[in-house]
Amino acid sequence: MWEYTDKVQEHFISPKNVGELEKPSGTGEVGSLACGDALKLTIQVNEFGIITDAKFKTFGCASAIASSSVLTEIIKGMHVDEAATLTNQQIADALGGLPKEKMHCSVMGREALEAAIADYRGVILPMAQGNVVCECFGVTDLEIIRAVRESNLRSVEDITNFTKAGGGCGKCEDKLRELLQQTVQAMSAEKAAKPAAPRLTTLQKIKKIEEVIEREILPTLKKDGGGIELIDVDGDIVTVSLRGACSRCQSSQATLKEYVEKKLREQVAETLIVEEAR
Amino acid sequence: MDCGQGKVVYMDNNATTRTAPEVLEAMLPFLTDYYGNPSSMHTFGGQVGRAVETARAQVAELLGAEPSEIIFTSCGTESDSTAILSALQTFPDKRHVVTTKVEHPAVKNLCENLGTLTGHKHRITNLAVETDGTLKLDSYKEALADDTAVVSAMWANNETGVLFPVEEMAAMAKERGILFHTDAVQAVGKVPINMKKNQIDFLSLSGHKLHAPKGVGVLYVRKKTPFVTFLHGGHQEKGRRGGTENVASIVGLGKACELAGKMMAEENTRVRALRDKLEQGLLAAVPKAILNGHAELRLPNTSNISFEYVEGEAILLHMNRHNICASSGSACTSGSLEPSHVLRAMGVPFTAAHGSIRFSLSIYNTEEEVDFVLAKMPEIIAGLRAMSPFWQG
């Protein structure tokens, strides 16, 4: 039996936005009956590029249905440009997390969204142009490399959990290991090549942290009725206080470390440590 | 209709069963006052040893076997491993094993890993099954070779309940001097078994599938069939299985076998009728519902139905909200990403395999429970289909 969060249960039992838009601006269809899960996402985009409506139809398990449902909730009211940067981790986070074997359900949500946006923009997704590595589930090398990079995957098992590749006959295992090694090597080479980030003054650091919280973190937390306030910055220790629904949420620690800290590390400084005010 | 707050409608008896109250009652003294070691010299331990022998006789009675042919083990999986590895050691020069594509993982995964256990390279023939899950005897006959050491074929399939003609298969193996093992974990207590009337060498059974507790099993080994010990240790089970006896569970298994003998008729009449009512009701009420497995040649308690275009885990979780317990052969529930190997071997299309639900009943199920499930299932399936992109309502 899977351990699903209350949020997953809620979206599974009473999914939001089930159905199909009649004249959608964009349609994204991913997965298949053979794969065991599939998602058809339709979106309505207005003249300002805002997603005004989204509906889904999903064949799949509880976490596939919940991922689709929460995805439609996230993107409604969002600008397509912003929606295009949505990660599968954000979908999983919005559900209070998914079991790692079910992460591919959040990836399916992200892929359907990308396909729908590409359809709206009239472009062809580059991912589909890769070479199929996993024949059982039709996963391409480009999709695998992307998952390894984005979610920092470190084993073939991780790849299977996130993309399903290798979860069938297992014949592609060697190829997956090879792709993993290449990608990890490439990533560490890029990291080494990157010039050291300029040292920020404390004032600059605080300013940048405030900016990222205002621009990205707060709006996301607000969607779930939560909030966040910056309390203090001492060296690399960033103290924050979670507000609203976040303060009572069981997965607030995960939100803090896997979302807030990750965002700040990406955009301010790699060395930051986020802690909750006691 | 309501089955009562918190009351569980348990239709997952091929996974495990409720310990019968009579079984628990028989066991309790051996978890409290009678804690002696059956191997001890004193009367206090000796009386416990006699209880083990009574249980052995009870198991033998249900199987139509001699008590000396019964070895107590820890589970069905241990019994399966013991039998197959024993046969391979009996014929160290024969490296061929015949089994089927639909075996329980206890046999399937053992056969896939034999090389690491024996240090030899083995040739494994996995017999295909028909679309209704049955086995063709002519392809079986062709598979038997001069270097075949052992055949392992299940008596009844755990997912579909489909029966294999193991008695005929054992006779054909015997003609070629091949040892025959059957995993009868699902069959014991549901189909009549008389080991005096067949030529099966090894038979595995598991306590918790017939209302005894988990953690006890039996390997039947025919008298004069060569046997090589798997778990070496003390002289328990006449040196055929080391380890101090799990006395209370063995006593419970004995009692469960006695009860199973008495209940066999009810399994095949009342339980069968309940299963049939459930199955026919579901097939009639839900469009695009398909029965998996042969309708006749199967256990009286099992029904495996595919609801096309919906996924099994989602169905199970909705059933769970009504406290209805069953299983699915879908990928998401199997812990892998592919649906059940049994349904795939039968060629069940993916549209149906992912939405398969196994109902397995027992003597504790009632007609009210069947009515309750019949009332709930159509709305669950319709609800999920309404959000399936493949369903053209």
Architecture blueprint of SSEs:
The complex is a heterodimer of chains A (278) and B (393).
Chain A: H1 6-13, E1 26-32, E2 37-45, E3 51-59, H2 62-75, H3 80-83, H4 88-94, H5 103-121, E4 132-134, E5 139-140, H6 141-151, H7 156-163, H8 173-193, H9 202-223, E6 226-234, E7 237-244, H10 245-248, H11 252-267, E8 273-276
Parallel strand pairs in A: 7-8
Antiparallel strand pairs in A: 1-2, 2-3, 4-5, 6-7
Chain B: E1 9-10, H1 21-27, H2 43-63, E2 70-73, H3 76-90, E3 96-100, H4 105-112, H5 114-118, E4 123-127, H6 137-143, E5 148-152, H7 166-175, E6 179-183, E7 202-206, E8 217-221, H8 247-285, E9 289-292, E10 302-307, H9 312-321, E11 324-325, E12 327-328, H10 331-334, H11 341-345, H12 350-353, E13 356-360, H13 367-386
Parallel strand pairs in B: 1-11, 3-4, 3-5, 5-6, 6-7
Antiparallel strand pairs in B: 2-8, 7-8, 9-10, 10-13, 12-13
Helix pairs in contact in B: 1-8, 2-8, 8-13, 9-13
**Number of helical stretches of at least 4 residues of chain A:** 11
Rg result of chain A: 19 Å
Mean pLDDT of chain B: 95
**Most extensive interface, chain pair and sizes:** A-B, 30 and 24 residues
Strands of chain A, total number: 8
CATH class of the largest domain in chain B: Alpha Beta
**Strand fraction of chain A:** 15-25%
Q: What is the CATH superfamily of the largest domain in chain B?
A: Type I PLP-dependent aspartate aminotransferase-like (Major domain)
What number of structural domains do the residues of chain A give? Answer: 3
Give me the count of strands of chain B.
13
Looking at the structure, the CATH topology of the largest domain in chain B is Aspartate Aminotransferase, domain 2
Ends apart, CA distance between termini of chain B: 27 Å
Strand order within the widest sheet of chain A? Answer: 1-2-3
Main β sheet profile of chain A:
3 strands, antiparallel
Radius of gyration of chain B (CA) equals 22 Å
Overall form of chain A: globular
Instruction: Name the structural class of chain B.
Output: alpha/beta
Separate helix tally of chain B: 13
